[in-house]
Specification:
With 290 residues, the protein is an alpha/beta fold. 52% of the residues lie in helices and 13% in strands. The chain folds into 2 domains: 173 residues, Rossmann fold, CATH 3.40.50; 112 residues, 6-phosphogluconate dehydrogenase C-terminal fold (Orthogonal Bundle), CATH 1.10.3660.10.
């Protein structure tokens, strides 16, 4: 049971976490902190939070758990602000999409109190944001990855895992470097491709003609281009090195496909398409989870 939960950044991720814990009766009071008063008022009206915090210092004073659900670029300032007011028994966790940079920011900002920070990443994002996007059940059967620190108390890690488990998440632990390499490939690269494709089409002369006749193919391929620009700017720069490796690999793949198109090698193109289709079907059927 968490008596006082503080959510810093009350949007889809932080808000849904609060809603699930409230539904399970695992939290008594939720305080919301954020830059937008209007968004916090919406969160209060929707029952996502119970109190709008005046500032992080006052909210953290009697907190049992603090969830940081802000863009990863904002984490260093939050840790620095939190360090002098963090209660000794309060656990801090996060929902950042990158882990090495967040952990480095926590070490720099929290100093000796870094042991109270349990890094996490729920894999349940969407292109919607803000408190109005929060919903019960967002995390059901979705992966939740923790990248614990050597300094963490085992009991703190188990508590964070139990709370995410109560939200219905599938729990896993991973080393921070491997986490960032994996998500550069399966999350960050797809977002960059979607953003780049939409930006390319929109910048063309007579772009309206392209969009007038675009259908489900473009809509499905670029759905995630509706994601929050600030958040994805921060993720892209935070995970720069692994993402550059993935971009280089994708450029080479596109060059090889271009060569097949240029040489009219239909048989080889069909093989690429068939392998891709089979891989996607296996993934959607959960075969890679076995």
């Amino acid at each position: 049971m968490i008596k006082h939960l503080v959510i810093v950044g009350v949007g889809l991720i932080g808000g849904s976490f609060a809603l699930d814990l409230k539904r399970q009766g695992l939290v008594e009071r939720v305080t919301g902190i954020g830059r937008s008063r209007a968004n916090l008022e919406t969160a209060l009206q929707l029952g996502v939070i119970d109190v709008i915090g005046r500032n992080l210092a006052s909210a953290a004073a009697n907190a049992d758990l603090i969830m940081l659900a802000v863009p990863v670029g904002a984490m260093p300032a939050v840790f620095t602000e939190l360090a002098p007011v963090l209660p000794p028994n309060c656990i801090v966790t996060d929902a950042g999409s990158t882990k090495q940079d967040v952990i480095a920011a926590a070490r720099a900002g929290l100093g000796e109190r870094v042991a109270q920070f349990v890094p996490g990443h729920p894999i349940a994002g969407a292109e919607t944001n803000g408190a109005a996007a929060a919903r019960i059940g967002l995390y059901v059967d979705k992966p939740l990855i923790l990248t614990p620190l050597p300094e963490n108390r085992a009991a703190d890690v188990r508590l964070v895992e139990s709370l995410w488990g109560a939200c219905g998440a599938r729990l896993a632990r991973m080393e921070a470097l491997l986490h960032d390499q994996v998500f550069a490939a399966v999350s960050h690269l797809p977002h960059l491709l979607a953003f780049a494709l939409m930006d390319e089409l929109a910048s063309r002369p007579h772009a309206e003609i392209y969009f007038r006749y675009a259908g489900a193919g473009l809509r499905d391929a670029t759905r995630i281009a509706g994601s929050h620009p600030e958040m994805w700017r921060d993720i892209t720069l935070a995970n720069r090195e692994p993402l550059l490796d993935e971009l280089d690999a994708m450029v080479e793949k596109l060059k090889s496909v271009r060569e097949l198109v240029a040489t009219r090698d239909g048989a080889a193109l069909e093989e690429v398409f068939a392998r891709a289709r089979q891989a996607r079907e296996s993934w959607l059927q959960g075969k890679f989870n076995e």
